[in-house]
């Protein structure tokens, strides 16, 4: 059991605290916003109840058990005192992260590993030199208590033992860590997701299809095959000559990178910012917590079904 400090109790932070607690670690959770920290307990309890009900967490994990495994601390110094792993999950701005890393340099134990959950920032230049040997990125996907992929990228001066230690911890928790040799913005999955996002926003802005039609194409087309085959195994089954011909035809031109979307800008201006606001691309009436629970229940069912179905991995030998 490791002593883990999670800095930031928002959307990812409270969920990561739950993940590490379920993984058998003692967690201290902190946030500079008192209201965010106060809400975290209820959010963790709600997610835990869904996991227990779905069979993805031990049945004996109660709210009382959770309160012992994850303690909340308004003071940063108290949260990182004695920490072996410090998970940074604060706002995605260089200035805020740099300020936090400076604080951690003064407060955290010298041997603590600092793991940033940044989605796209190269945080290593923001981390004090004295912490570089034990600094890395461990990027999770939401909701992290159901999505097992974790991108792990060592800093340019990170000691191999620190990197391997985190990789081993994640594997022991049942996660799927993907270790990259160097930092690339977006890693692997987020880069692919960004390309999809650019295309679907273009299709929407150009009036080619509606959000429901685009989602239907993904759900009933791409998504059915990807969990079992991925991209390259799918190409093998289709035949690489076809892939070669499609590339040679040069029939696809990626949309220009505009840095904005007319449709998205309009929705945000109208206050349609997503489920928490009651509307986004779709209308979402009702309690947001109930909607997130409904999402999680479906993800649990899908994850359990995939365990039974399996993938093509193991039936092949990669080149």
From TrEMBL:
Where is the 3-hydroxyacyl-CoA dehydrogenase NAD binding domain positioned along the sequence? 4-181
What SUPFAM superfamilies does the annotation carry? 6-phosphogluconate dehydrogenase C-terminal domain-like (SSF48179), NAD(P)-binding Rossmann-fold domains (SSF51735)
Keyword list (alphabetical) reads: Oxidoreductase
In this chain the 3-hydroxyacyl-CoA dehydrogenase C-terminal domain maps to 186-284
**Keyword Oxidoreductase among UniProt keywords:** yes
Per its UniProt record, what InterPro entries does this chain match? 3-OHacyl-CoA_DH, 3-OHacyl-CoA_DH_NAD-bd, 3HC_DH_C, 6-PGluconate_DH-like_C_sf, 6PGD_dom2, NAD(P)-bd_dom_sf
By its UniProt entry, which Pfam families does this protein fall under? 3HCDH, 3HCDH_N
Give the superkingdom in one word: Bacteria
Keyword DNA repair part of the UniProt annotation:
no
Q: What is this protein called?
A: 3-hydroxyacyl-CoA dehydrogenase family protein
